[in-house]
């Protein structure tokens, strides 16, 4: 009798098991739908154009990936554009992480005259579409002599309104005011408070902002297309846009180039998301 009671007590009811089953099925369906565009990209990159537009559509991998990649490498300076994009994305991400976290920490934990007004102006800049600032930005870069220079891509983007807003919100809720006051009592200046007190706590927010900034810099197409006129300095997105002009409608080659440009983003996301989750878990354990 006791064993029967214990079994009844710890047996999961049927309706709860059914709900869990449906939940897992829905999650699997959503995952499949989310993964399908990437799967279709790989399928197109491994097939020829005739296979892509065939009817019914070919959903299996082909055998032309090596041929398509070879056509990409013959058509554009892929590795040169890859190196340019990697340098720009890494430099811009590093600068954004430093300046935005420093500004966000300052807005969150320091009181100074005009703080609220400056923050409202900062939020106002987020409402302006980037396309509206393209012409004034180009005129400014031309007067500075930065046209077709990496400085025109890195320096205007080294601080972003979203980055400051994100770090300010995170620092305001995660960095204890008592910890900042204790640092002041110990004689820490503003930069030491930022480096030794705030920065270790801000790591999860920095991981997210780093992933977001790197992907944005890697995928940026409009501004590099406007500001760069030297093919040797083309970024990856601008170089890939030349494929359609070279080979017309060879979509297998275009998709192969797109796949080659996407793989680094996946690697960066996997590395960054792992640190993001690990830092959140470490913070939860400390609490």
UniProtKB/TrEMBL annotation:
<dbReference type="GO" id="GO:0005886">
    <property type="term" value="C:plasma membrane"/>
</dbReference>
<feature type="transmembrane region" description="Helical">
    <location>
        <begin position="21"/>
        <end position="42"/>
    </location>
</feature>
<dbReference type="InterPro" id="IPR035906">
    <property type="entry name" value="MetI-like_sf"/>
</dbReference>
<dbReference type="Pfam" id="PF00528">
    <property type="entry name" value="BPD_transp_1"/>
</dbReference>
<keyword id="KW-1003">Cell membrane</keyword>
<keyword id="KW-0812">Transmembrane</keyword>
<feature type="transmembrane region" description="Helical">
    <location>
        <begin position="146"/>
        <end position="166"/>
    </location>
</feature>
<dbReference type="InterPro" id="IPR000515">
    <property type="entry name" value="MetI-like"/>
</dbReference>
<dbReference type="GO" id="GO:0055085">
    <property type="term" value="P:transmembrane transport"/>
</dbReference>
<feature type="transmembrane region" description="Helical">
    <location>
        <begin position="251"/>
        <end position="271"/>
    </location>
</feature>
<feature type="transmembrane region" description="Helical">
    <location>
        <begin position="117"/>
        <end position="140"/>
    </location>
</feature>
<comment type="similarity">
    <text>Belongs to the binding-protein-dependent transport system permease family.</text>
</comment>
<feature type="transmembrane region" description="Helical">
    <location>
        <begin position="193"/>
        <end position="215"/>
    </location>
</feature>
<keyword id="KW-1133">Transmembrane helix</keyword>
<keyword id="KW-0472">Membrane</keyword>
<feature type="domain" description="ABC transmembrane type-1">
    <location>
        <begin position="82"/>
        <end position="272"/>
    </location>
</feature>
<protein>
    <submittedName>
        <fullName>Sugar ABC transporter permease</fullName>
    </submittedName>
</protein>
<feature type="transmembrane region" description="Helical">
    <location>
        <begin position="81"/>
        <end position="105"/>
    </location>
</feature>
<keyword id="KW-0813">Transport</keyword>
